[in-house]
Amino acid sequence: MARTLILAIAVTWLVWATSISAQAPASSAATSAAPAPKRDLTGVWMIRNPAGMRGYAGATFTKEEPEMTPWAIAKYKEAKNTNGGQYDLETTNDPVVTKCYPPGTPRVYFHPYPFEFIQTPKYVLMLYEYDHVIRRIYTDGRPLPPDPELTWGGTSVGRWENDTTFVVDTVGFNEKTWIDRLGHPHSPEMHVTERFRRTDRDHLQIDFIITDPKSLVKPWTSTFYAELRPQWELGEISCSGDYLEFKTFEK
Hey, how many other C-beta atoms are within 10 angstroms of the C-beta on 212? Predict the structure, then answer.
């Protein structure tokens, strides 16, 4: 069963890479004929990064390593990710692969599936096709909680910076997730800021700022790009634990 899972994962990422390479090159300057609607991100979106980012953007935020603290460097050395093929299901310690843990924020963006915005008067919902992940982003003016409950996705509050830019701040993460697929660690002190800027009707720029005094010497920043998929509906992608031999991983 382990070999079957590994093959399935490999095929999934091969299909993802193939679809990426087949598309027209994206860029931060990509535009469509229609302007962006005001204060509206509604719809299904798919990450589509420029060709120059494809060597790393499926697994991490930047080509260069972030500046990590000694604590984070030690934790990172313990990570056995499956990204480069060095580790498989029997040897990896990736919590998503071995335990079907939710990917958490911001790692969820590295899973090759679309996401959707649904806006209401008091909050914005972000629905991710992968593993039914749901985020509630409060827009009712409340501040970030000073002592948040620690969860997979954290607690998020959002505000419109202008008519096309939605800024989301998230805190309150447990330590069971990685920041990315490579295994960069974080602490409960991590703070993630996402700036969703709709450059026109069909294109979205996402600026990330990740701070964590325990794991990062300075903020880790990156920019991803997404395209609107008006004809798409989110499907059902579930990380089922049926394939796992849990005795292998239970400690």
Answer: 24
